[in-house]
Amino acid sequence: ASYHSGISKSIDYELENKWTFLVKGKEKNIPVSEWLDLENIVVKDKNEEGGMGIHFYKNAQSGGDWIIQEKLYNSEFIQSLLPDNAPLSTFRVMTASRYPLSEESKRTF
Known about the structure:
The chain is α+β, with helices and mostly antiparallel strands. Helices cover 26% and strands 9% of the residues. 2% of the residues are buried.
């Protein structure tokens, strides 16, 4: 995908970015995992002292690098198909490009 993205210069590859995918999905009323409406969060170790074990995260919605979400769980039905303590089951949205079939791509190669 990276090679094709570089050659085609297609804006469609923007959706490889998880944050862009979530925002665009929400804009188009496509169900996506929700994120917390917080600018920042602070995570502290429960027993560290003197400022040790403290981490600051800026949410992507505020220009940060982190998508801050509540933990997701498998639905009851999916969980019934899995062993106990199975991780979250996900699937990848598959996409395809028609660019290699276009006249423009023939001039590129």
